[in-house]
């Protein structure tokens, strides 16, 4: 009976990690695709220029693939060393995610102030050589969310040193419409607009986070159960 139980856990563990690995391949593929096409949503931060959507997806996909691969081989070969390595890596990632979430809620106000200050610095890179990703990102955000600037549309005045905003701030887009009067521009601040949008979709974000945590806990449970059920050290 114990042997049958071990075999059942073994194949469940293998299928679980195979799906985990395939998920990593998908994330990595999307990240590479974004990087190759320069990605519409590059980083908006001037302090962390490498913190782009493409780079984050590539790093995340690579880690997920490595962890899934170690789990697959550990399960199918019934190798306790690999199973323990899988458990430790997944546990470290889970604890890091938990720490980040706790720190985010504890220091929300400070993070808000720093993010707005950093985003305003990033505005000065808009339209400059080598920053097409940042330029596209701001254009898409302002068009889709019907907003302008970080905390106010006047943020752009400091960038252009005149009463002007990007054309993506216009109520009705046309070439050089950002030179027209403020009455033709979106007035809502982008930072608050996006923040409100996230709060309105908090349930979806929460469900996604909960599902991610449950998948990781399931993986930890499978790995430790199989590790403890296996006799000796393989």
From TrEMBL:
What Pfam families does UniProt report for this protein, alphabetically?
Tetraspanin
Enumerate the UniProt keywords alphabetically. Disulfide bond, Glycoprotein, Membrane, Transmembrane, Transmembrane helix
Q: InterPro entries from the xrefs?
A: Tetraspanin/Peripherin, Tetraspanin_animals, Tetraspanin_CS, Tetraspanin_EC2_sf
Quick one: which gene encodes this? TSPAN4
Gene3D superfamilies linked: Tetraspanin (1.10.1450.10)
Location, primary (coarse class): membrane
Got a GO cellular component term for this one? plasma membrane
The record lists the organism as: Cyanistes caeruleus (Eurasian blue tit)
- Name the chain's protein: Tetraspanin
């Amino acid at each position: 009976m114990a042997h049958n139980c071990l075999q059942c856990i073994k194949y469940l563990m293998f299928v679980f990690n195979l799906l985990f690995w395939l998920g990593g391949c998908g994330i990595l593929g999307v990240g590479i695709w974004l990087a190759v096409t320069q990605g519409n949503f590059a980083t908006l931060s001037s302090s962390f220029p490498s913190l782009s959507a493409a780079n984050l997806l590539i790093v995340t996909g690579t880690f997920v693939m490595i962890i899934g691969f170690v789990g697959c081989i550990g399960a199918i070969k019934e190798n306790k060393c690999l199973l323990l390595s899988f458990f430790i890596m997944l546990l470290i990632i889970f604890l890091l995610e938990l720490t980040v979430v706790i720190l985010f809620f504890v220091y929300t106000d400070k993070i808000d102030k720093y993010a707005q200050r950093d985003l305003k610095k990033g505005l000065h890179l808009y339209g400059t050589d080598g920053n097409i990703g940042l330029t596209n990102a701001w254009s898409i955000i302002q068009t889709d969310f019907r907003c302008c600037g970080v905390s106010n549309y006047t943020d752009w005045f400091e960038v252009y040193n005149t009463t002007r905003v990007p054309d993506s701030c216009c109520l009705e887009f046309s070439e050089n419409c950002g030179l027209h009067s403020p009455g033709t521009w979106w007035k809502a601040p982008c930072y608050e607009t996006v923040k409100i949008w996230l709060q309105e979709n908090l349930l979806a974000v929460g469900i996604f986070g909960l599902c991610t945590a449950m998948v990781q806990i399931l993986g930890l449970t499978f790995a430790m159960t199989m590790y403890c059920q296996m006799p000796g050290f393989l």
